[in-house]
Automatic annotation (TrEMBL):
Protein name (Swiss-Prot/TrEMBL): CBS domain-containing protein
Keyword Signal: no
Organism: Streptomyces griseoflavus Tu4000
CDD domains, per the entry: CBS_pair_HRP1_like
Any single Pfam family the record assigns to this protein: CBS
Gene3D superfamilies per record: CBS-domain
Sequence ranges assigned to domain CBS in this UniProt record: 9-66, 74-129
Length: 141
């Protein structure tokens, strides 16, 4: 796959502080219609929090989501990419580490996120995964 990460990434990120409650992060995900947020301490990315993280690490163990912070539940120390990294680097990292999204950082600041869906859209726009990635969220969810 040719090109650069900046050509396939979703620009912009939504971030929360590590001390934000899981409820606050989940509400932000809902209002923004996204499935993940970057957890940042100032300008430093300390983790990525996904809807799956909330489900598996909070809800499934019956933890109080108001008592848990984003920093408690997120996947810490995420791998990152630069906008000018080749797309093949994103593919290799996702494959090697079995991850679905990687924050894109430029000058120490998060500028986007590259996801498995982004890669599917770039490589095979007609694929089922690309179609799912482009679909509008269900208004009832």
């Amino acid at each position: 796959m040719d090109g650069f990460v900046k050509d396939v990434m979703t620009p912009g990120v939504v971030a929360v502080r590590p001390d934000a409650s899981v409820v606050e992060a989940a509400q932000l995900m809902r209002t923004q219609n996204i499935g993940d947020v970057v957890v940042a301490d100032g300008q430093r990315i300390v983790g990525v929090l996904t809807d799956r993280d909330i489900t598996v690490r909070a809800v499934a163990v019956a933890a109080d989501p108001l008592g848990l912070s984003a920093g408690d539940v997120c996947t810490p120390n995420p791998l990152t990419l630069a906008p000018d990294d080749p797309v093949s680097s994103a593919v290799a990292l996702m494959r090697e580490h079995a991850i679905r999204r990687i924050p894109v950082v430029e000058g120490g600041l998060p500028v986007g996120l590259v996801s498995l869906g982004d890669l599917a859209e770039a490589r095979d726009p007609g694929s089922a995964l690309a179609g799912i990635s482009r679909a509008e969220p269900d208004e009832n969810s």
